[in-house]
Amino acid sequence: MDPNNPGPEEYGRHGDDDAPRQRPPRDSLTSDFGQHAPALARTVQLVSGDFLLTVNPVDGSEIEPCPPAERPARPVKLDAAERAEVERAARPPVPPGPAQPTLPLLARQDTREQLVRLLARGRSVRLTGPAGSGRTRLLDIVAEDCADLAPDGVVRLSGHRRTPDDLLHDLFYAVHNAPLHRPDRAELVEHVREIGAVVVLDDLEFGGAALDELLDATPECAFLFGATPDVPAPSADAGVEEVVLDGLDRAAGLDLLEHAVGRRLTEDESNWAGDLWFESEGLPLRFVQAGALLRQRDRMRAGAGAVDEFGVFADARPGDLPYDTVDGDEVPLPALGDAAAPAPLLASRLGASARATLRFAVALGGEVPHQAHLPALVGDTHADAALGELAACGLVSPVGSHYRLAAGVMAQLEAAGYADGLEAQARTAAQHYAWWAGHPSVTPERVCAEADAVLAALSVLAPLTTATGDGEQSVAVQLARTAAPAFAAGLHWSAWERALRAGAEAARLAGDVGEQAYFHHELGILALCAGQLDRSRAELEASIGLRGALADKRGTVAGRRALALVADRSGTPLALAPTAGEEVPEAHVEESASPPRGVPTAFPELQPPSDTALIINRTASAPSAPSSHKAGGGLKGLARRNLVAAGAGALLVAVLGTVVTLGATSDSDADNPSDRVGVNPSASQGIDDGSLGADPAAGDEGDTGEATSRPTDPGPDGTLGTADDPRPTPTGSESAEPSEDESTEPGEPSKSPSKTPSSKPTKTTKPPTSPSPDPTTPDPDPTETETETPPPTDTEPPPPATSDTASGPAPSSPAGTSSSASAPQSSGAGTPSGSGSSGTVI
């Protein structure tokens, strides 16, 4: 790794042509200061299901429906050469130093042939053996034997801390070429069902229904599972054969010990090895470690003089020697107790770098850092050779693409004091990984390969985080902040989730509200990609609340966009309250608006006198109760509108009865102002003046800001007349009968109970330009069009003060004059400006 020269291994797309363009700096004076920001190199776009996910470590990842142009092509399978390269990358690295001899596979030939036969028949097999029984070595040999059995070859997977969903994705990427594409569950199952391979899966950690799920999704694959006896067994209907791997017999154990030492055993050593075989139950790992003890004894017996003769340790100080030198044959064989738990004795005879590596491994829960990290962690430029020493002694074993402490070694080292200073060791590792994972030259794939060690450091430090109060960021928060985006971009989403949860806990303990909001936002994005909408909603709402308290506008916008997508997928609308420090548009709940012509009443349309028309129209056009389009639709919304309509009809009957009674008892007056007022009120008042709420026409406006030209009811030719362009008012039954196009629909605000168009100007002082109708022409009788309407009495009640909206001149008025022309309407709703008459509104 060259941190000074990132090269092509940057986050995102490779090459200059595919690199995203950067915005020019706003200020030319600060152009040199803004070019080095590493956040732009970390932004990665990938497709998850039908989502386009932009991993943004600055403000939080952004998610949106994937546009059709961004949809990746159907993944194609890798060829044989590409599969071999993928398999090579999945193997653990070869330890540096002298090549170690390969130990033979002893007393396993029958088991080996049995496994190959079962796999050749398409059967799945579980090889069960205790830790240290040589299970991994046997799986490697069987995988080589089955290389030509399946069309897609042999796929090597690791089940260490992996779920069935993780293994399905690992199998998909091992066979297909799909960069920056994570298929959803349905698409994933569709692809893996077409894979025909022998899958060698070591370190399996689940069984039962979870194992059935894995087998059902891959019907064309034959699995060879490697598991310990404590892992749950497969279900009875799984059809998995069980093969048990026992320990070696005495002869095979002694033979393996001789191969490990590289020479014949003496009689004392054979007797010592026999006691070891009885105590260890024939586990091959114990004989490998015993062979390392005998090799160390041989070097000690040789003495330092023989080594100094070749100048190997010529420049070394006595304290730096990897073991104590003793002259002569006085070095005894290790005690049986030391041979049964050989880790402390073996470690004491290793170099300082190897012992420091063991301390880091104990602090990280048994995870051994990659050999490339050892020089920086240990502080020795040649510390990478420590991995070779540990592997030769049998203190570490391969797991997937990295190494772990061998079975039983961690407990032995903890008892020997290697766990002292555990927190300090974990903090040192976390600081190193936080720098390394955030460096632009490190690809997401390399961070994912070191995921177990990174997560181990987080698991140790996150619960121990405390609030410092000096503004310094917690090491655990910093590590989670840099590693989580890399896990997301590298498609290792189980590690992404674990890093986010550990980071959220550490940020909460440290009192870092901003980082806590980031982790909750990322958890919401991850849950949305997984289809867990309720969890996504909860995480995003928590993030928005925290960011609102900090007035983080950019982060809040990103959270709300994701939350809107959750609402769209779940079908539940959201009403977000404004947050602190942000100007947010007024939140509202969608209402089911009434149709344009009001809610139909339960009775036929009536022709009330002019002074009650306003009240009836207000009642008939009352909107329904607030509800969303989705929640208030269907039968529920229809029933609510029916209730409104029935109430409006009942109120209509009560008002008409009152009007008829008042009209019958009122005095006849020739100069009654109501004689100059028509029965058809205008529907052209404003929205805020308490009237019908008709929409004003887009036209001229007066000095007061109110519209001076408003539409009226459609005329006989289907066009709208205005005060500036009035139409001649038709008379008789032709204008009184409504057409089918003008029928009132449910929920529409009613403009007027009469279908006679208005021909007088409204809210204007200029006289009408069109000729007025003949004053001798009588008003149309309402009974000609509405047969069920009771005829009006000869005497009408006095008009209210708000009757300036009547349309059309009175029959007795001279042409060109009206009550509206003589008394202009004021800006206040319902307040007469030039009329001295008074009345009571009913």
Report on the architecture of this protein.
- The chain is of the alpha/beta class and 842 residues long.
- Among the domains are: 103-246, P-loop containing nucleotide triphosphate hydrolases (Rossmann fold, 3-Layer(aba) Sandwich), CATH 3.40.50.300; 421-588, Alpha Horseshoe (Serine Threonine Protein Phosphatase 5, Tetratricopeptide repeat), CATH 1.25.40; 615-697 and 707-826 and 838-842, no CATH class.
- It has 28 helices and 14 strands.
- It has a five-stranded parallel β-sheet with strand order 6-9-10-5-11, sandwiched between helices.
- Strand 2 and strand 3 form a beta hairpin.
- Helix 13 (352-363) packs across helix 17 (422-437).
- It is globular.
- The N and C termini lie far apart (88 Å).
- Mean pLDDT is 73; it is low at 1-40, 310-328, 576-646, 658-797 and 799-842.
Tally of helical segments: 28
Low-pLDDT residue spans: 1-40, 310-328, 576-646, 658-797, 799-842
Overall shape: globular
> Can you give the mean pLDDT?
73
Tell me the number of strands. 14
- Our estimate of the beta-strand percent is 5-15%
Profile the largest sheet. 5 strands, parallel
Query: What's the arrangement of strands in the largest beta sheet?
Result: 6-9-10-5-11
What is the CA-CA span between the terminal residues?
88 Å
Give me the Rg, rounded: 43 Å
The SS-based structural class is alpha/beta
Helix content: 25-40%
